[in-house]
Write a structure and sequence with these properties.
single chain; alpha+beta; Arc Repressor Mutant, subunit A; three-stranded antiparallel β-sheet; 4 helices; 3 strands; 35% helix; globular
């Protein structure tokens, strides 16, 4: 399947930069929620767990584990709308934050300090 240009959803760099700290389920759940929120220029979206299961192709327990993990990493907030529906919102800082100090990024391609 070819990718259709140019139709994109913004993904916060924090998610991409911290993927190595996340479970695969957490990454996939966050990508699905990015699509349903930022992809439609919304800050939050109301979804059922069944919708997330369909979107991600993962089992219900795996999706729940991804949601719980994203919440524990303070990247996702969910609030109950009713018994079967939740409102999901990515926790994005309202103001620009100081960049994370990563020693590997302060070095050039040669590995020497810039």
């Amino acid at each position: 399947m070819a990718i259709s240009p140019p139709n994109y959803t913004q993904v916060p760099n924090t998610i991409l930069d911290r993927m190595h700290e996340m479970t695969p389920a957490e990454v996939v759940v966050l990508m699905a929620i990015c699509r349903q929120t930022f992809g439609w220029h919304k800050s939050e979206d109301v979804m059922t767990l069944s919708q997330l299961v369909r979107m991600t192709g993962m089992s219900r327990p795996t999706v729940l584990a991804g949601i719980n993990s994203a919440e524990s990493h303070k990247m996702l907030e969910r609030t109950e709308v009713n018994k079967q529906t939740q409102c999901y919102r990515l926790l994005v800082a309202s103001e620009y934050q100081q960049p994370v100090k990563d020693p590997d990024r302060s070095k050039g391609l040669t590995g020497k300090d810039s």
